[in-house]
Prior knowledge:
Number of strands: 0
Helix content: 55-70%
Strand content: under 5%
Distance between the termini: 53 Å
Shape: elongated
Number of helices: 7
Amino acid sequence: MKTIALEDIIVGTILTFCENAAELGCPREAEVDMWFRYLSYQDSLKVADKLIEIEERNAKRYKEEQMEEQMEEQMEEQMEEQMDKENEDNGKEITMVEMSLDLSKDVIKGVIKYALENIKNDKKALINYGVNKILEEVISTDGDCLGDCLGDC
């Protein structure tokens, strides 16, 4: 069980009080501490009740944000697991084959432009894009960049 120091509660309450002074009824031209000091006892209890409502609202909002973050993390994990399953070689032997393509620079630029405009949040497609970008550099330099290319192409 998580424990919270009394000081943390006090600091949080003071901060919430100051941040929400206008909502609690403090006039714009008044200093918050002086305004609260001169409230009647009944009015100060009303401010305290309103502050409790604000704290509860903030706690609910924080809990909802935490749940959303957890859901997003779970979805990302599930997507990564799915992508890992799709990318497993399943015992297949993978053979690299060298091939030569004779593509014009206009065709290459068109393919890259299309990829940039249409690929969004697709890891596999982005990897393919990166490989194609490297191939474009290799083609444009007639293979001269292969020695130091893969980090610099």
